[in-house]
Amino acid sequence: MSFQESPRCADEEETFYMQCRAAYLAVFRSSLTNITSRQQLCRVLQQAGRNPSRATLNKYWTPRTSKLNFDDFCEILKCEKKTEENDLMRAFKKMDVNSDGFITHTELEKALTTRGEKMTTEEVNAIFTLADINKDGKLDYSEFCRLLVSTAEQCQMAALERLEADAKLKRQNFGSQSYSPPKPSVSSASSAAQSATHPQPPESDITLKKDIRSSSRPSSARSRRSSLSNSITMTSGSTKTNKIPEPSGLQEWHHSYMKGCLFLEDDGSISSLQYQLHLPQTTSVYLTIQPLSFSHKPDKPSSWMTVDTSLFVMSAAETKEDSMFVCFTESKDKEKYVWKGDLNAGTYYLLPFSSGCKLKKRSRKSISNKPIDLVYKTDTGELDLTRELREVLSDIFEVIDLDGNGLLSLEEYNFFELRTSGEKCDKDAWAVCKENFDMRKNQLTRQGFMELNLMEATEKDGDPADLWVTLEAMGYNRMLELVEACPFQIDVYCEGTQPSIQPLSMDFGSKLLNQALQKSITARTGAKSLRGHDNVFIYTYRGEHRISSVIANKSNQKVTVHVNNEQSKNCCSSRGMSVFAVEVPARTKMVCQHILPINEKQDWTYNCVETILPCT
Fold first, then answer.
1. Model confidence over 72-88: pLDDT tens digits?
2. Taking all residues of the chain, what is their mean pLDDT, rounded to a whole number?
3. What are phi and psi for residue 204, nearest 5 degrees?
4. Are 549 and 232 in contact (CB under 8 A)?
């Protein structure tokens, strides 16, 4: 989300988040309370004027979902439109076989128990009893729709009125926009332009006091005493000045590479395969990671090429807890992220990472209702895969062919199977594949991979449901666009020895990655305590292309930190919101947010106010 928006957009966003909070606080006591069940999700969506079907609830509450927070709820509301009276009328008119404006009990029961999400007879009877206002055995659905929508609007209005009347709730700016952010004055705009020309990151106490008194600061931030202001201006050319040069004679160095993919999960987290690197002896190393472009589309740049990637390196130990953070690809050269240095002989973990600023959930409103066809019947009546699907499957083959030898081993194919179905293919099943599909050296060819997918479509008589499950698990939408994944390639060059890379499991290193990420931030910057809270610290890392922060809570009780980025310019946050709250358990550290420039060719200013919220 951009922090620099037009007044009209800011007003619309403020209104939207007020409505979100009103609906949320009509169900829960606090915006920090998590949604912990499908029933709670349904109830709070209904409070917000939505009418979620089972399919809608299943989309957001999957078997892997244990909780959703207020920010998740806001993102869901952006994707799901309100139930309108016209939508209800169209549904009822389909049941009105006589077109007389009324539906009998029999017509309603037949429609609701045999179509779509089937209801029981008891549920239909309960609905009819409530809806038959005149008690004449007929449902005047026009009047019913009007009352239903009117009641929903009245509930939302009552929630908003309660929110505005309750001063205590109004002070709880958890995960939402402030209620009345003042428009920047001319003086604040000119001072921002001046700071962009002469970057001077505030470090002294005097500067911090001046920042907190600044008239351009939102009132919600000025009103709290236990806050910390942090302002950093980055110039557009800052990423070019520290570029690591490619070692001379790199073509003669020993080289290994491995492919992979960053996947955006349902809860907004990002997952990936982890890797193990072995170095037989101490050597100079040139390490890179970059998004992988598919060669058959040179005229159309891949959308994921703008996604930031990074590779964290940890030394392997007897237990994962004993692993030590070593380095990460901190320098950037176009789409490539680079590290150069010496590594001792031994085994290391390579942990791919993306901040989530550019790889995030997208609204489905812009997507056409009619998905692209996946299968068709030939002139002879046989089923075949469409050209569009074959192109996508070819791209997927490129991604899961981890070692790039043009073939899929059983191990590589199982990474794909675990991702798309949650199951593994054993050796007996692999032997059956060998009998039926094109293989070479006991490995599946690209043609064999196509044949396997065609067989699955044929077994379902052309029903593409299972194919769509596979495609969506790999990050594709119904227009066959890769929008929730970022393929990448890791390259390791060693001057004095041959490196070897092996893939590990998807769930191997999530805790390790978080540990490495926190260490990379806290080891490179000093801690600043929040005023009045000597046990709560903020670490703000300023890299060449990314700003990241960690909150360290060394107290014996949990704290809630309110984060306000509204004064930032040309920035996007991994949180997707300019104002939010982070709950940090006692004696723990937590990554607060990552910040990237929206436009890398322009200067960008990170201006953040962190505030401890009082316990409620």
1. 898 898 888 787 777 77
2. 81
3. -80, 160
4. no
